[in-house]
Amino acid sequence: MMVNATKGLFISCDIPMAQFIINLNASLPASQKFIIYVLDNTHLFVQTHVAEMIRSAMAEFRDQNSYEKPT
């Protein structure tokens, strides 16, 4: 029996963040897609090299959607 193993990064997050990551993946060309498997609504298995790219995209999204009270 042949066994295939894939090295990846397990992400556990809430549903909105998982959707954000799925949409980020969908916005990329096929050669750059990084999701290996969507396990369920809150767990994803992705390629290891995209960790920093996901963090940056999340930080940028958070910054764009933060409300700062005017002084």
From TrEMBL:
InterPro entries, A to Z: TFB5-like_sf (IPR035935), TFIIH_TTDA/Tfb5 (IPR009400)
Keyword field contains Transmembrane helix: no
Keywords: DNA damage, DNA repair, Nucleus, Transcription, Transcription regulation
Keyword Cell membrane: no
Signal peptide: none
Subcellular location: Nucleus
One cellular component (GO) term of this entry: transcription factor TFIIH core complex
Matching SUPFAM superfamilies: TFB5-like
Domain of life from the UniProt record: Eukaryota
PANTHER family: GENERAL TRANSCRIPTION FACTOR IIH SUBUNIT 5
The family this protein is said to belong to: Belongs to the TFB5 family.
SUBUNIT field: Component of the 7-subunit TFIIH core complex.
Protein function: In NER, TFIIH acts by opening DNA around the lesion to allow the excision of the damaged oligonucleotide and its replacement by a new DNA fragment. In transcription, TFIIH has an essential role in transcription initiation. When the pre-initiation complex (PIC) has been established, TFIIH is required for promoter opening and promoter escape.
The protein's name in its UniProt record: General transcription and DNA repair factor IIH subunit TFB5
Source taxonomy: Eukaryota, Viridiplantae, Streptophyta, Embryophyta, Tracheophyta
